[in-house]
Predict the 3D structure of the following.
Amino acid sequence: MHTVKTLFQKIAEGEIPAEFVYKDDLCFAIRDISPQAPVHVLIIPRKPVPRVSETTEEDVSLLGHLIVTAGEIARRLGLQAGFRLVVNNGKQAGETVPHLHVHLLAGREMSWPPG
């Protein structure tokens, strides 16, 4: 069965250029091309999981790794004043790429509740 690669798989494989801010065996992080804050980084698992609602027990350590990695990236970028992590699940939530990823947003005041 042939599956179509997601945008993020193509970036991971070097088919599409991106500004990487982090890489390891399980994930990578890039600057968002349409930033919603002065700092907007996407933390993306190399494993192509479509969305949170499709994760399984097998993904528990990967999901934890994404959050810990977000904290490491925030420290490296000097975001001591605060940051927000966002994961969209489904079109109604703003999902545009069917490949789970964590948005790290910082550099401006964040309102609550998010819109």
